[in-house]
Amino acid sequence: MTWHPSILAQFDAVDPNTTVETEWYGPYNTLLGHVFKFEDGFLVHPQYSLYQSRESIDFTTIYIVERNRHPVFILEIKPHPNLIDKSRRISADVQIRKCFAKLKIVIPQLHAISVMGTTFASYVLDKASKQVMPQEIISSNEEINEDLAPQSWWQYEILEATGKAKFLEIIEDVKAMCL
Known about the structure:
- By secondary structure, the chain is of the alpha+beta class.
- It has one domain (5-178).
- It contains 4 helices and 7 strands; from the N terminus they run H-H-E-E-E-H-E-E-E-E-H.
- The chain has helices at 5-12, 25-35, 86-102, 161-178; strands spanning 42-50, 59-67, 70-78, 109-116, 119-126, 132-133, 156-157.
- Strands 1, 2, 3, 4, 5, 6 and 7 form a 7-stranded mixed β-sheet that branches.
- Helix 1 runs antiparallel to helix 2 (25-35).
- The two termini are 26 Å apart.
């Protein structure tokens, strides 16, 4: 079970060790357009936000998929080298949780994935309980530098069979809720 050759070609064109986040935007935009078809009423669009620092000209992009003007799926992109940096994983985790907090959801659960290169973590916000899984890890002591977003959360490879299956399982769940 593999992706369409044109999708694979786009991912293959990106150096897996690049530190340039924008190189991943094209392949993921194509992938999202492939699984969330406009003919089915889905709209895939990037949301840009500036980092907190006023000294930085960097920005981040989160793709939000909507149906009937309501968010139904989120995809956050970071370069693969971020995976080994604890502070960058924590930052990605915080960004997903902030995005959940800002959106008004109408479906029972809002799925999100945080990708670092082609490796992804799966998140879900339950509308009724307002709980996010995986649960947020709260530091027990500010003096200790704890891993609040363990690398093990990013356990799926989107280009491998098991990662593709997990991704498509999430997409099918989203589509079922949208009906």
